[in-house]
Amino acid sequence: xxxxxxxxxxxxxxxxxxxxxxxxxxxNCEEAPKNDTxxxxxxxxxxxxxxxxxxxxxxxDQCTVSNVQQVPQKSTNFEGTHSNFAKxxxxxxxxxxxxxxxxxxxxxxxxxxxxxxLIVATRTTIQVYxxxxxxxxxxxxLKLDSSLLSSTQIVTTSLSPSNTDMIWVACSNGSVFRVNWxxxxxxxxxxxxxxxxxxxxxxxxxxxxxxxxxxxxxxxARKEGGFRTTANELAEPDGTIAxxxxxxxxxxxxxxxxxxxRDGSIIVGASRKRILxxxxxxxxxxxxxRIKFEFRxxxxxxxxxxxxxxxxxxxxxxxxxxxxxxxxxVVDLVVGNIKGVIFVHYDIAGELFGQPKNGLLLSTTNLVxxxxxxxRQAVNSIKWSLDGGKETVLVLWQLESGKKDFLPHxxxxxENIAISPNGSSYAIQLSDNSTIVLSTADLLPKMMIAGIQxxxxxxxxxxxxxxxxxxxxxxxxxxxxxxxxxxxxFNPLIMSNSYLQTFDLGTGQSVSNQALTRTNVTxxxxxxxSHNISEPRVTHLKISSDGEWLATVDEWTPSANDLEFLGTxxxxxxxEINHRREVFLKFWKRNSSKNTWELVSRIExxxxxxxxxxxxxxxxxxxxxxxxxxxxxxxxxxxxKIWSTRLRKRDGVLVRGKDSKVLKNWGCSQAFKLGKTNLxxxxxxxxxLPITGCVSFCEDGSVLAAALxxxxxxxxxxxxxxxxIKKTFxxxxxxxxxxxxxxxxxxxxxxxxxxxxxxxxxxxxHTYKLRSSILNLSVDQxxxxxxxxxDQKSKTFAISLPKLPTGIADQLIGARSExxxxxxxxxxxxxxxxxxxxxxxxxxxxxxxLQSDRxxxxxxxxxxxxxxxxxxxxxxxxxxxxxxxxxxxxSADEPRKYPVVTKHQLSEVFDIGPAFALPPMEEMFYRVxxxxxxxxxxxxxx
Length: 942
Prior knowledge:
The protein has about 950 residues and is mainly beta. The protein is about 5% helix and about 40% strand. A five-stranded antiparallel beta sheet has the order 1-12-11-10-9, with no helix packed on it. It has a five-stranded antiparallel beta sheet with strand order 2-8-7-6-5, with no helix packed on it. Strands 3-56-55-54-53 form a five-stranded antiparallel beta sheet. Helix 9 (about 905-910) runs antiparallel to helix 10 (about 920-935). It starts with 6 loop residues before the first strand and ends with a strand. Its main location: nucleus.
């Protein structure tokens, strides 16, 4: 029998209609425990030293203060240095807003009976979209135990056969919800059908003793070992019908798929290579705990990856009195396996239950189904009329004629397919976190929805660190994503992310998706040896201060499998891979009319491996100038390069675009070496290339901070216009560096410790030591999982630190991150929050008000003052359509009475071509005067 089931309730978070009044049906239920899972404020950090009035030079030894104790210090230094900062902001508390976006679960989308809505599920929410305009109509957040969020998610959904306004939702922790998708009711209460979790679920509407009820069939693990399938009748706790359950099948292997006919008379499941078919023995049962099924099983040659049923009923004249049921269904079963083969079993129930009742069929049994084989890899989803495999191609099989039709070049691997009730539409879920609805008449898209397409960790059947906010449209988020985001949890491989996704945080929808590198969408994505052909990986992504330019770095290396024919050793193989490395620095210009980015310049091998090699070297970091359209890169060759625009010329004549504006190219304007990173003790020792490096501009762009991971731990402050090194500081990090940012006159450095360094007084303001659990991670893990971001307006900086399962360094399932927000002038963090998953990127955000009922998986951290409950309902998202007013910022001009005009700005006026191509003298005069006389402009949004 199944474990005891409980109906629990809590607050509901639904979007759209008003929340319903809490019912009294949960009085007899046990209340879910509310454990305070908020961690201590410094679970990953120790305050190692804080210099106030007793500041010490950066090179002196530092002491460790245990248990995060604050060292008494005078505040005169901080107040004198940052007198313009309002004291009230220091005490302003922080909180996390409601999350946005979310990863669609690997489950079939659900059409409503009228086909006007499509229901998809993310990790913890049910999202209802309108098929007419692809807009989100309602987002319903389930009430889940906060202490189990990191390990709990929705596993499957099923529309109620008896009441189409209700949808059944099964979660991985064994809880089952019955939610009204039209108003969100029912999301606050659930039944616990199993204490060991839930693997899969299907629902049937069964009738007996004159009563029709929904019967929920679930598969779960057993405490004593093995797995089982359970039939559950989940009734209201205070109702007249009792909750009942019965185990109808047990096995030693997990049951990964479960399908049932609408009336529950036939159940079909898959357990690895085994297919099981169950038939209801009798409809004469008053409660579900007396239900009885009869099962038959047979073996398949390969692991089963998908299956589907087609049910039809015999005519009344064909039904004999010997039939136990009133109507005998004819069930046609289609099965897809891991090798891309599809088998079609016609009338599988009639074939199986006509055999001797020995449980397992003999190998001599005549079950030879028709075989369809086109896919070269696993059949991820299959439905009667359509199937989809990893070739990103839909195949239409006409079984009577054997003819095949194709819909090729889908944007990603097909994960799930759903058929609308009247068969007029197909809903296709892709592995890039998007769903497309196609018309069956012409196979043209009628609807498309897409969530945030960042990498996710999945167990066997991460991480993208490139996220930016577009300054021109602050509600838009830019992400470098790939067609395949699911990364295996153990020994994960590096995944390609060759696409740029623009995601609107206001609407919770994807705006655009374009390729940044070459892709295999229209090509065969597998080599003759069946290994996937890899695509380039975007390693860095930065946007200019005005939001008009985008710089990307993509890198590609051949896999070791592609070089097996060389037959070289491990060391030689690594050398061959480096010889074939491809690195490109690309500059894109924003096209506001098409809402896309157009490629302007592509620079091949911007950095080399070293001074004597011609091999492409890796770019370790990319930075954007906050004051102008410039970018800086640092490479493994120990050089820093600054990239800026140049006027495009052809035969000495300026080239203009369609709008008569002069076109621009990008090139290197400054390049300088940082010197030797490591002093070799042995002359015969081979020099080691740096594997980490960081570069950052100060707020006005005049100073550039650059550092390479090395034993010397040198940070260089460079004049970004002359290229000369002005200052060098040592021993501020050791030995690798993972982040460096300017915050006013302070330099925030993230390595194996977190350091706040005042570059004016050359003193360390704060030092935090990371816990040993983080220090034990590999350099690659730290580089991908540790992040730093600063916000110049609020004078705050944030870091994210990983927390992996204890004792398992390469296991990512269960890994999570802690977010800590610090103010420049305070020692204690203003916010410390654990996330149930790994944080893959941090980006400073402007103050953007989002409606409070939006749900997703991209939380935004803001001060509580900007998220007042009474104001959020009335404030709309500020975007480009908002009214803007330009005002003079007189206070900002006081420190700089005379504008600084650089040689580069003057060259843009005068150095534009030969004399006959120069503009009129009056126009050149006004350009020069604008450079010297234009006051600083500030835009405020109303």
